Amino acid sequence: MGENMFINSLSPNTIPLVSIGVVVGDGKDDKFKAGLIQVRLLRDGQIVNKDLLECAPLLPRFLNVLPKAGESVFIFTQSYTPQSEKAVLNVQRYWLGPLISQDIFLENQAHLQATAVNADGTLPLYPPNDEPGAYGNPTEGDVTLQGRNNTDIIQKNREIWIRAGKFESSDNKLFNSVDMGYIQLKYGSSIIQRKVIPKEVKTYKYENPEILVNVQINTYSGSTQFTLPGNLPNQSYNLPTMLTNLVLSVNRNLDVIEGSEVASQIYSFNSASSVGGPGDYNNREAAIAKAIELIDLYKGEKWKIKSNANEILDYYGRDANNKITDFVLFKSEPTIVTRTINEIKFISTTKNNSSVLNMVANKINLVSYDGAHSFNLTDPEKLIDEKTQIQINSKAHPLVYGDKLVEFLELVRSYVEYHVHPYDGIPADPGEVKKDVLNYDLNTILNHNINSN
Q: Can you spell out the DSSP letters for 164-231?
């Protein structure tokens, strides 16, 4: 019957403890930098944005995140009296958010998509199909602090990861196995073997609909013009005074752009202006039969049907467990996309515990404030900006490969040891300097606790 147990369980006198609202500003007007934002709730009615209450953050300032305009947040009210006109304007509100349904939408997610995480959300959730490694794994105990775009800090079992560029720039569902920069701090075995293991990863690609059919079947009282909802029992539409209007449109080349459907119309039908007059479809059963006839004529193989009528949605196979949705999609098997990524595994070879730090990036720079340089290392907005980064990458001194230095010094020592004067073949004077060179343990140059490739 399309009932919503969450809404139907509320009485008219229910006091909302928590509401979901839409952020109307980006926080730049918060001159006090206190995290105050303006949020529109359903009960705010026609109040203009500038007159909305400023909402205080519930998150402590130690964790500083600000929702963007258009995103959703939870709103807690200090108190609320439905009968009070001043309650809307004068009661303190607190926000918690932003509400993000899944990790792949961290950068920005509109209100309707975000509320899909709720059981009574307008839109359904779908599997994100993100590759292993693109995000943290909470099912394995990961505790993750995620940025808006392509960064995170993950606390694992005796490990901490700090990552930048964790997924591919072209697709935030694909793990970046090429040039991700990260710091990995581990506590475990003192001898750890690093292995790169090819791993086959499968993702599922679903086809988009090619035809969008929008069907509106409105049954109303001929005397009062009151339109009935489309999710009532069939007997509710059978009164003698009831009239029905059928409006149907068919669109081709459906594109989905940030959740908005853009299409070119190829057919439309309105029973109020159809040949034969509206009387042909004033009966709801006749209107539904006509709608099914037109849908089957135009929908093709890859279709999406949106309607306000339960009869249409159920006829074309709406999920029996989800009566909230107002659309039905064609059934299709997803295409399995297989790709190989390099998975890095560290294998312990002893039981002695110690800590290990791995720094991995295309370019690694160790820069001291006290070193001889003119680099700007404290830009207030970026710390090291793009111009300075180029200077460091090109002008900072490269570190020496220790084993290669030892190899070269062994050649120098051999030269000193076997050097003779060409004019009479007499060996060089065996002074103290020569003895010091020959007796020097070159392996002491190497620090085996810090390695590089």
A: ES-EETTEEEEE--SS-EEEEEEEEESSEEEEEEEEEEEEEEPPPPSEEEEEEEEEEETTT-PBPPTT
Q: If we measure between CA atoms, which residue out of 302, 366, 376 comes closest to residue 332? A: 302
The DSSP element (H or E) to which 112 belongs, if any, is helix 111-114
Instruction: Report, as an integer, the average pLDDT of 211-216.
Output: 91
Give the gyration radius of the chain's Cα atoms: 34
β-pairing, 303-307 with 211-221? Answer: parallel
pLDDT of residue 431: 61
Cα separation, 67 vs 27, in Å, equals 8
Do residues 96 and 59 touch, judged by C-beta distance below 8 A? yes
Q: Does domain 5-117 have CATH number 1.10.246.40?
A: no
Those residues whose C-beta lies under 8 Å from the C-beta of residue 215, and which sit 6 or more positions away, are 246, 247, 248, 291, 295, 305, 306, 307, 308, 309, 312
- Greater confidence (358 vs 13) lies with 358
C-alpha–C-alpha distance, residues 245 and 218, integer Å: 5
Length of the chain: 453
Better pLDDT: 151 or 323: 151
* Lowest-pLDDT range of 25-39, 123-137, 271-285: 271-285
Give me the residue spans of the domains in the chain.
5-117, 138-203+346-357, 211-329, 402-445
**375-427 pLDDT tens trace:** 999 898 898 999 999 999 988 888 888 888 888 888 787 777 666 555 455 55
Of 109-123, 139-153, 326-340, 399-413, the range with the highest mean pLDDT is: 139-153
**Distances 67 to 21, 99, 216, 430 between C-alpha atoms, Å:** 12, 9, 36, 76
CB proximity list for 27: less than 8 A, separation 6 or greater:
35, 36, 37, 66, 67
CA distance 302 to 319: 18
Tell me which of 33-37, 78-82, 89-93 is least confident. Answer: 78-82
Q: Coil, helix or strand for 448?
A: coil
Tokens read off for 259: 């959740």
215 contacts 193 by C-beta, under 8 angstroms? no
Q: Region 307-334: what's the mean pLDDT?
A: 84
Q: What pLDDT is stored for residue 104 in this prediction?
A: 92
DSSP 57: E
| Interatomic CA distance for residues 110 and 123, integer angstroms | 11
**Between the CA of residue 393 and those of 107, 361, 367, 427, what are the distances in Å?**
29, 13, 11, 46
Q: Which residues contact 206 (CB under 8 A, 6 or more apart)?
A: 332, 334, 335
By 3-state DSSP, what share of the chain in percent is helix, strand and coil, each rounded to 5? 20, 30, 45
